[in-house]
Amino acid sequence: MKAMCVRQPASLDNLKLEAADAPAPGPGEIKVRIRAASLNFRDGLVVNGFFPVKGGLIPLSDGAGEVLEIGEGVTEFAVGDAVVSTFHPKWLDGFMDKADMDNSPGGPADGFACEEATRPATHFTAAPKSLTHAEAATLTCAGVTAWRAVVTDGKVMPGATVLVQGTGGVSLFALQFAKAAGATVIATSSSTEKLDRLKALGADHVINYREVPEWGQEVLALTGGRGVEHIVEVGGPNTLGQSFIAARTGAHIAIIGAVGGFDIDTMPFAIVQAKRLNLQAVTVGTRRDQIEMVRAIEAHGIKPVVDSTFALDELADAFRHLQSGNHVGKICIEI
After folding, report:
1. Distances (CA, A) of 109 to 41, 89, 106, 305
2. Residue 147 lies in a domain
3. Residue 209 · residue 178 · CB < 8 Å
4. Reported pTM
5. Low-confidence ranges of the chain (pLDDT < 50)
6. Domain of 302?
């Protein structure tokens, strides 16, 4: 089979299409024909060398396709089933220590920028029957992260108000899951076009953070001075200050990423104590989270937002599009 590999020193110019092996499945394993994969911010850090990985690593944590073969003892899947990969293959449910989360695909383990993959059956779940392979491939990281933030940890209830930031995959999934839960959603972004897309997906209020840099105060105004009960915080240190202002007393803030950069010298922690804020870091989620999310997607008819698709040998161009910040939703690779 063919696979894209990260050669050292890691860079977009050192992504190489090469031959690779996908052995027959052993006991408890399945062999999957990968039909699509999707890109995440984390994958960009891997292929550009920010996260050091072994030479020859196959990148991309999110893959979807159909089962080609099953090994002895596998009963959960059959040949032909549509499946989607999990981000933390060892974290099936409940508590998991960070030290044991050491085999995520796309780094340090091989990922899914390839035609075939042979893995333990527990490294996959069923894909939603209502989605294409490309749509299903968006779920592994962004979908489960948003589900964990909104449902598993956040426990968003009807009538709650949720703030989401931007038009990346996690934020759009969080918007859709929050609306399915009966919440009011306030969304921020940087352009009229992107704000229109957010409104089309169900956002009740939108704020252009370039025009309103003190958007925390705008959120307070939209909520009658109370603030929001839930914030899906993907910007990182440079947006946390405004999130703290926008938060209601006792709010739940899911700390997910730092797409806004890390260059900040101080953190307004006094407001965290004054408002008794609950900061919950999210590092994707469990296999159980993914199974429950798939059920919800099917029940509510949720469709992931796919910005664009590229061929496997166009992976470097796909990453350049991701880095441009011009996308809305997920960027996928069809294989």
Report:
1. 17, 10, 6, 27
2. no
3. no
4. 0.95
5. none
6. 2-141+285-334
